[in-house]
Amino acid sequence: MVAQDKKGNPLWRCSGTLMSPTLFLTAGHCTEPPAAKVEIWFDADVESGIPGNGYPYKGQTGGKPYTHPQYDPNAFFRYDLGMVVLDRSRAVRMSQYGALPSLDVLDQLAQQRGLQNVTFTAVGYGLQRINPVFVEAARVRMLARPHLVQINTGFTGDFSILLSNNASTGGTCFGDSGGPNFIGDSNVIGGVTSFGINGNCAGTGGVYRVDRKDDLDWLATFGLFPQP
C-alpha cells in the first residue's frame, strides 16, 4: 500500500492484510495524518510491473485510512493499528481473507513450553537487505517464519511481542510495517509489523498485538470479529 496526501502525492509505503472485500488491516503509523487516502497493490512482484501497474499513484484498489483513536505518534508502538476502508466500487473478492485472533490468545501461546517453538508467518513488501553500504529494496512480497522471542516487553508493556529477525528464520524491515504476522501456518493474525530495534533490521522485530480487547473492540466498529 502507498499512503497519499489530499492531493494524491505519495507519502510512504507499507504492507497489510485484506480482511474482507472492503477492509484492509495495517499499522497505525501507516494510516496517520497527513495520509488522506491509500492505494493498494496485491501483485507478488509490484516492482516488475512499474509503470504499467500505476505504482505509486493508482493501485488495484484503494480507500480511506483510519487510525486507532488512541494512537500516539510519539509512542507509536502503543495502539499501532490502522484500517483502510476500500471504496465499494473497488471491492476485492478473494477465496480467503485474514482472520482476527480470539481475545488474549498470544498470552496462551507464551505459556507454552519453549518460546522458540511458537512460530509466525510474516508477510510484507519491505527491504530485503540493508547494511551501511548496500540496500536491497525491490517492491516484492516476501515471507518469513520468525519465532517468538519475548511477549509483553518491558519498553512497550502488553501491546507488543518481539519476533526473531535473522538469516535463519527471516524477519521484517522497513516497508513491512502493517503486514500480517499469522499465527503458525493459519490465516489468523496475531499482530501487525510495528517497529524495528535497530537501523539494520537485525536481531528482533516488534509486532503490535491485535488480540487485546481495545483493539478487537475498535475493529468491531468496522464489522470485524474474531473467528467463532
TrEMBL record:
<dbReference type="InterPro" id="IPR018114">
    <property type="entry name" value="TRYPSIN_HIS"/>
</dbReference>
<dbReference type="GO" id="GO:0004252">
    <property type="term" value="F:serine-type endopeptidase activity"/>
</dbReference>
<protein>
    <submittedName>
        <fullName>Trypsin-like serine protease</fullName>
    </submittedName>
</protein>
<feature type="domain" description="Peptidase S1">
    <location>
        <begin position="1"/>
        <end position="224"/>
    </location>
</feature>
<dbReference type="InterPro" id="IPR050430">
    <property type="entry name" value="Peptidase_S1"/>
</dbReference>
<keyword id="KW-1015">Disulfide bond</keyword>
<dbReference type="InterPro" id="IPR043504">
    <property type="entry name" value="Peptidase_S1_PA_chymotrypsin"/>
</dbReference>
<keyword id="KW-0378">Hydrolase</keyword>
<keyword id="KW-0645">Protease</keyword>
<dbReference type="GO" id="GO:0006508">
    <property type="term" value="P:proteolysis"/>
</dbReference>
<dbReference type="Pfam" id="PF00089">
    <property type="entry name" value="Trypsin"/>
</dbReference>
<dbReference type="InterPro" id="IPR009003">
    <property type="entry name" value="Peptidase_S1_PA"/>
</dbReference>
<dbReference type="InterPro" id="IPR001254">
    <property type="entry name" value="Trypsin_dom"/>
</dbReference>
